[in-house]
Write a structure and sequence with these properties.
alpha/beta; 509 residues; methyltransferase; seven-stranded mixed beta sheet; RNA methyltransferase activity; transferase; 13 helices; binds S-adenosylmethionine; OB fold (Dihydrolipoamide Acetyltransferase, E2P); Rossmann fold; S-adenosyl-L-methionine
Length: 509
C-alpha cells in the first residue's frame, strides 16, 4: 500500500484527542466482543430446529419471520403478552381501581402482517465479503438478515431484495465500523401507501477518494434503471431516491447525522411522500382532507394505519368533551362551542395529529424541533379541504407552526401565554418522554381567563411506556392533572412495545 494511501487512511481515522478515538486496547476488546457475538449467533443458528436455506446468500440463514433473535417478532403469537404491554395494563388498571372506577385498560392490536411502511436497515460486509442488509440484534452490532419480514409492507421486502442484489452485483463497499472504511451504512425505505412506491435513502459515508463517488453514481443509475424495468411488476417502483451523507466515524446509534447533507437524486417534485390518514367515513360531518407530506428527513409513524386509529380516538374524545362542555351553557353559548378556542401542540412532527384535528379548534399552534417539518406543515395546511372546499383564509391564519424545541416553546412570558390560552394541549414526545421543563410548565399555574369556562385538556401520546410512567407521576402528583381516560395501541405487534394514549384534564378545585 502506498504512503499516500496510508496517510489518507490515518487522516480519516480518529486521532488521539478526537472524541471518537479508541486506544489499541479498546479496539482489541471491541474485536473480541464482536468475535464472541458471532460465535454465539452461529451457535444459536446451528441448534435451531427452524434452520432453513434462504434465497439470501450462500450460507444457510433463518428468515426474520423464523429467527429467534428478531426483536420485532418475539411476541407475534400473542402481541398482548409482551412484557411492556402487560406492565402498561397493570399500571393503568391499578390507577383506575384506586380511583374506584369500573374500567379496564383497553388494548387494541391491528393486523400483524405488512403494517410497517417505514424501515431503516443496516448494511454490513459479512466475513465472506458479501454485502448484507439487515437489522442489528438488540444490544449488539450483529446483523440479522430480514428477508420477507412479515411485519414489513411487501414493497419494503421487495426493495430490500433489489437493493441488496444490485449492491452485490456492483460490489458496493459496505461500511465497516471497525476500520471506518466502506461507504454504504444504512438504507431507509418508506412506502407511500396509496401508490406502493418506495422512497429510498442511501446513507453513505464519503471517503477521500474519487472512486467512491463513481460507485455511488453507478449504484444510483442502476437502481433507477431497475425501477424503470420493474415498475409494471410493482416490485420496485421508486418514488424518489435520496442520499444522506453521514460521515461520522464511529457507529453512532443514530442513523442520521444531524449535520450531514441530504441530496435528492431521483424522483418527482420535492420527493415528499403524501399520506392521508382519515377517510370521510371516519368523520362524515367535517370531511376533513389533510394530505401530510413526508420527505425522508422528518419523523413518520412506522404503522400509519394503526396511528390513524389513535387520531380517530382523539377526535372522538374531543367531540365528547365539546358536547359535555356545551351542555353546561345556555343555548346561545352552546352554538359558540362548536370548537375549542386554542390548541397547543408540542413534538408535533409534520402535523400528523394537529392538522387532523383542525376542525375542532379556532386556532392551532404546532411545533417541533426538527427544522424540516415547518414547510411540510405549511404546504399541508395550504391543501386542507373541508367538505371539498379549501379552508377559509381567515381560519388558516390562526394555524401556525414554530420550529422550536418543546422547552423553547413553553419558556418565558410567551410560553406562559401560549399555555394559558390553550384549552387543549397535545404532546407526542420521542421515547424518552417529556422534557422536565415541559412537565414543570404544565404543572405551573396555567389557568388562564380563556379557560375559565372549562378545564384544560392534555392529550399525551406516548411511544415509551417507562418514560410515560415517570411523566404521569410528575403530572398527577403535582395535583394539577387528573387522568380521565387511557388506552393502549400495539402499533408494532410482535415487539415489546406499546403506544399509550392518555387524556388528562386539569383537576377541579
Ligand atoms: C414520536 S414523534 C411524533 C411526531 C408527530 N406527532 C407524529 O405523529 O408524526 C416525536 C417528535 O418529537 C420531535 N422532538 C424530539 N425531541 C424534541 C424536543 N425536545 N422538542 C421538540 N420536538 C422534539 C421529533 O422531531 C419528532 O418529530
Amino acid at each position: 500500500m502506498g504512503t499516500n494511501e496510508n496517510k489518507k487512511r490515518r487522516r480519516s481515522c480518529p486521532q488521539p484527542g478526537d472524541p471518537d478515538y479508541k486506544t489499541p486496547t479498546q479496539l482489541r476488546n471491541a474485536r473480541k466482543r464482536r468475535k464472541s457475538q458471532r460465535e454465539k449467533s452461529r451457535g444459536s443458528d446451528s441448534t435451531s430446529p427452524k434452520k432453513h436455506v434462504s434465497k439470501e446468500g450462500s450460507s444457510s440463514r433463518l428468515s426474520s419471520s423464523q429467527h429467534p433473535q428478531d426483536p420485532s417478532l418475539k411476541y407475534i403469537a400473542n402481541p398482548k403478552a409482551a412484557p411492556t404491554v402487560q406492565a402498561a395494563k397493570k399500571f393503568f388498571d391499578g390507577i383506575f381501581q384506586s380511583t374506584q372506577r369500573d374500567y379496564q385498560f383497553p388494548i387494541f392490536v391491528g393486523p400483524t402482517q405488512g403494517w410497517r411502511t417505514v424501515a431503516r436497515l443496516a448494511v454490513r460486509q459479512q466475513k465472506d465479503q458479501t454485502l448484507q442488509v439487515g437489522l442489528f440484534v438488540p444490544g449488539s452490532h450483529q446483523l440479522l438478515p430480514v428477508p420477507q419480514c412479515q411485519a414489513h409492507h411487501p414493497n419494503i421486502n421487495s426493495a430490500v431484495q433489489v437493493l441488496q442484489d444490485v449492491c452485490r452485483q456492483l460490489v458496493v463497499p459496505a461500511f465497516d465500523e471497525a476500520t471506518g472504511r466502506g461507504n454504504l451504512r444504512y438504507i431507509a425505505i418508506s412506502v407511500e401507501r396509496s401508490t406502493g412506491k418506495q422512497q429510498v435513502v442511501l446513507v453513505w459515508k464519503e471517503q477521500e477518494s474519487d472512486s467512491t463517488t463513481q460507485i455511488l453514481d453507478r449504484l444510483i443509475a442502476k437502481l433507477i434503471s431497475v425501477s424503470d424495468q420493474k415498475r409494471k411488476e410493482k416490485i420496485f417502483n421508486l418514488h424518489s431516491l435520496w442520499v444522506h451523507y453521514n460521515n461520522t466515524w464511529k457507529h453512532a446509534n443514530s442513523i442520521v447525522d444531524r449535520n450531514g447533507r441530504w441530496v435528492q437524486r431521483h424522483g418527482e417534485d420535492d420527493g415528499h411522500i403524501q399520506e392521508v390518514l382519515l377517510s370521510n367515513s371516519n368523520q362524515p360531518e367535517s370531511q376533513l382532507y389533510v394530505p401530510l407530506l413526508f420527505p425522508p428527513q422528518v419523523f413518520r409513524q412506522a404503522n400509519l394505519d394503526g396511528f390513524a386509529n389513535i387520531v380517530i380516538k382523539i377526535r372522538e374524545w374531543l367531540a365528547e368533551r365539546l358536547a359535555s362542555t356545551a351542555d353546561t351553557h345556555t343555548s346561545k353559548e352552546k352554538k359558540k362551542r362548536r370548537r375549542f378556542k386554542q390548541c397547543l401542540e408540542l413534538y408535533g412532527g409534520v402535523g400528523t395529529i394537529g392538522l387532523n384535528l383542525v376542525d375542532y379548534f379556532d386556532g392551532l399552534v404546532s411545533s417541533d424541533e426538527n427544522p424540516y417539518n415547518k414547510s411540510c406543515f405549511e404546504s399541508s395546511l395550504g391543501q386542507i379541504t373541508l367538505r371539498d372546499k379549501p379552508m377559509r383564509e381567515s381560519r388558516r391564519e390562526h394555524i401556525v407552526y414554530h420550529s422550536k424545541s418543546a422547552t423553547d416553546m413553553i419558556l418565558g412570558s410567551q410560553g406562559r401565554q401560549l399555555l394559558e390560552k390553550a384549552e387543549v394541549i397535545i404532546v407526542d414526545p420521542p421515547r424518552k418522554g417529556l422534557d422536565q421543563e415541559v412537565i414543570d410548565a404544565l404543572n405551573a399555574s396555567i389557568e388562564g381567563s380563556q379557560s375559565s369556562t372549562s378545564r384544560k385538556a392534555l392529550v399525551y401520546v406516548s411511544c415509551g411506556f417507562d418514560a410515560f410512567r415517570r411523566d404521569y407521576q410528575g403530572l398527577v402528583q403535582s395535583g394539577r392533572w387528573t387522568l380521565d381516560h387511557a388506552e393502549g395501541h400495539v402499533l408494532f405487534p410482535g415487539s415489546d412495545a406499546i403506544e399509550t394514549l392518555s387524556f388528562f384534564t386539569t383537576t377541579e378545585r
